[in-house]
C-alpha cells in the first residue's frame, strides 16, 4: 500500500532538505521516506517556486476572465429573454396580451 503524506509534512521535510544540514539519506531515514521520493519533492518545489511570485498576476487574470464571462452570460440572458418574448407574442401565447 502506498503511503500518503500531508502537504505540511512534505513542506517541512523539503525545508530541511534545502537547508543542506543533513544528507538526503539521513532525512529519508529520519522521516521514513524513500530518498527518491525526497528528490521528487525537492524538484517539484524548485520548479513551482517561480509561480509563488506570479500569484498577483494570475489572480488579476482570473478576475478579468470571470468578469468577461459574467458579462457574456448576462448578454446571452438578455438575448434569450427577448427571443422568448417575441416567440410568445407571435404564437399567441403571450400571457400579458390576454
Structural account:
- The chain is mostly helical and 98 residues long.
- The chain folds into two domains: 1-53, Arc Repressor Mutant, subunit A (Orthogonal Bundle); 54-98.
- The chain has helices at 7-19, 24-31, 35-52, 55-91.
- Helix 1 (7-19) packs across helix 3.
Brief sketch in words of this structure:
The protein has 98 residues and is an all-alpha fold.
Number of domains: 2
Largest sheet entry? none
Instruction: State the order of secondary-structure elements, H for helix, E for strand.
Output: HHHH
Total strands: the figure is: 0
The level-1 CATH class of the largest domain: Mainly Alpha
For this structure, the CATH topology of the largest domain is: Arc Repressor Mutant, subunit A
The radius of gyration computed from the alpha-carbon positions, rounded to a whole number of angstroms, is 28 Å
Shape: elongated
- Distance, first to last CA: 71 Å
Which percent range fits the helix content?
over 70%
Keywords, separated by commas or semicolons:
98 residues; mainly alpha; 2 domains; 4 helices; 78% helix; elongated
Topology overview:
Elements: H1 7-19, H2 24-31, H3 35-52, H4 55-91
Helix pairs in contact: 1-3
Amino acid at each position: 500500500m502506498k503511503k500518503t503524506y500531508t502537504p505540511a509534512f512534505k513542506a517541512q521535510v523539503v525545508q530541511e532538505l534545502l537547508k543542506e544540514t543533513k544528507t538526503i539519506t539521513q532525512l529519508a531515514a529520519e522521516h521514513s521516506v524513500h530518498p527518491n521520493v525526497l528528490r521528487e519533492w525537492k524538484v517539484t518545489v524548485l520548479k513551482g517556486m517561480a509561480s509563488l511570485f506570479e500569484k498577483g498576476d494570475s489572480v488579476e487574470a482570473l478576475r478579468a476572465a470571470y468578469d468577461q464571462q459574467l458579462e457574456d452570460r448576462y448578454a446571452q440572458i438578455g438575448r434569450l429573454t427577448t427571443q422568448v418574448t417575441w416567440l410568445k407574442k407571435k404564437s399567441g401565447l403571450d400571457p400579458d396580451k390576454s
